[in-house]
Design brief:
This protein has 405 residues and is an alpha+beta fold. The chain has ten helices and 18 strands. The chain has an eight-stranded antiparallel beta barrel with strand order 1-2-3-4-5-7-8-9. An eight-stranded antiparallel beta barrel has the order 10-11-12-13-14-16-17-18. The chain is elongated.
Length: 405
């Protein structure tokens, strides 16, 4: 029931449904394989400095040929978990501002009349107003599932189809609605059927929902307030007041972050991502800021100092003078921290990390901890949002949450 309700809600309408009658290769193990991040022939790019000049726009976004305001929206959405379930107020404000900027531009006129609206769209962000049910809020926010909306208006049977994809190996649920174009922006829809498709079954499993008996609860409308001229970004608002941001195809960084959120196959995706990128040489200034650790590879028997240098499990702050602080709040009222210094070495994009002191604070009482150690950090990829590095046998992925400290 939860799956069907959420899939239906993803189109902008919310219906109340009655109750129904291979392991990825390891990276960062005892012997980490080489990661191909330099240019062919080991030729270095010209030396450049500064965050704005080095990565004013990530290569992934540039290759997707997004307009500047569209790229700004995608940048704001990087790191948002659960398609909006977990988002800091500052980041939410950035997303809303980017959405409003695109809506003000207008995009393709009369989007329902354009062939660009046709096809499969992946839901990457949605708001959850007070009218949304707990089922919708809970299910749409599950990162391990992917949610799509298929729009087909130029057929003898116009339809809007919401898809919840459990996984490539399990299958999906499709909730379908017959659609009618009201004007250049609005699509009217009425849900009329739903079915599960499982990979291990040779037939579909109908979901026993009495759509015809639901009346107005099975109806809704969806306004497209922005459709990009390249046909890769769509913003829609539904009759329940919910805003949806959808995308035709995700870029490499989005795939990486969604894989980290799902928690499976991360090492393989990191390897593919790094192999497809070119990284310029840079200095310490590109690292300055506050970073949140999203993922780290694991090894057996790792020491406290190794964990501390790797950024523990939460935040890392790097200052312009090379001071470094790693911290984590493991339990309410309990904070672990480690301090040290970071400086550039003679090797390309490699930094020396020296951890000097650590402490655990419980309430108002602080106890010292031994975190001394020397480590080498190699930057495998970095832009204004994402950092992938390797410390000893660990691979780490950080998200930049602030540019300066």
């Amino acid at each position: 029931m939860a799956a069907a309700a959420a899939a239906a809600a993803a189109a902008g309408g919310l219906i109340r449904l009655p109750p129904p009658q291979s392991a990825a290769p390891r990276f960062g193990a005892s012997r980490a394989p080489p990661l191909r991040w330099r240019r062919p022939g080991n030729q270095r790019r010209p030396r450049r400095h500064g965050l704005g000049r080095l990565f004013a726009r990530s290569a992934a976004v540039e290759e997707a040929a997004y307009a500047e305001p569209e790229a700004a929206l995608l940048e704001a959405l990087l790191g948002v978990q659960g398609r909006g379930r977990a988002v800091a107020p500052r980041q939410l404000q950035e997303v809303e501002s980017a959405v409003q900027a695109l809506e003000a531009l207008g995009g393709v006129p009369d989007p329902t009349s354009s062939s660009l609206i046709e096809g499969s769209w992946q839901l990457i962000f949605t708001t959850r107003p007070g009218t949304a049910s707990p089922i919708q809020r809970t299910f749409v926010g599950v990162d391990s599932f992917r949610i799509f909306q298929e729009v087909y208006l130029r057929t003898d049977d116009p339809r809007v189809i919401n898809v919840v994809r459990f996984s490539e190996s399990v299958g999906d649920l499709k909730v379908e609605a017959e659609a009618t174009v009201e004007d250049g922006k609005r699509i009217l829809f009425r849900f009329d059927r739903a079915a599960f498709t499982f990979k291990f079954l040779p037939f579909k499993v109908p979901y026993p929902v009495p759509f015809r008996l639901l009346g107005d609860e099975a109806k809704g409308w969806l306004d497209t307030t922005y459709l990009s001229h390249a046909g890769n970004i769509r913003i829609s608002r539904g009759n329940k007041g919910t805003t949806f941001v959808l995308q035709k195809s995700a870029d490499a960084r989005q795939i990486l972050l969604s894989t980290i959120s799902a928690g499976t196959g991360v090492e393989e995706v990191i390897g593919d991502f790094i192999s497809s990128q070119n990284v310029a040489e840079f200095d310490l200034d590109i690292l300055v800021g506050e970073w949140q650790l999203l993922w780290r590879s694991k090894t057996e028997g790792e020491s406290w100092s190794s964990v501390a240098s790797a950024g523990l499990k939460d935040f890392q702050i790097i200052k312009e003078d090379g001071q470094l602080k790693n911290s984590v709040s493991s339990f309410p009222g309990v904070n672990l921290s480690a301090r040290g210094n970071i400086c550039k070495t003679k090797n390309v994009n490699t930094f020396s990390v020296s951890m000097n002191e650590g402490a655990v604070q419980v309430g108002g009482v602080q106890f010292p901890l031994d975190t001394k150690g020397e480590f080498v950090m190699e930057i495998l990829y970095i832009d204004n949002k994402i950092r992938i590095s390797r410390i000893n046998q660990h691979l780490l992925v950080h998200l930049r949450v602030a540019n300066a400290t």
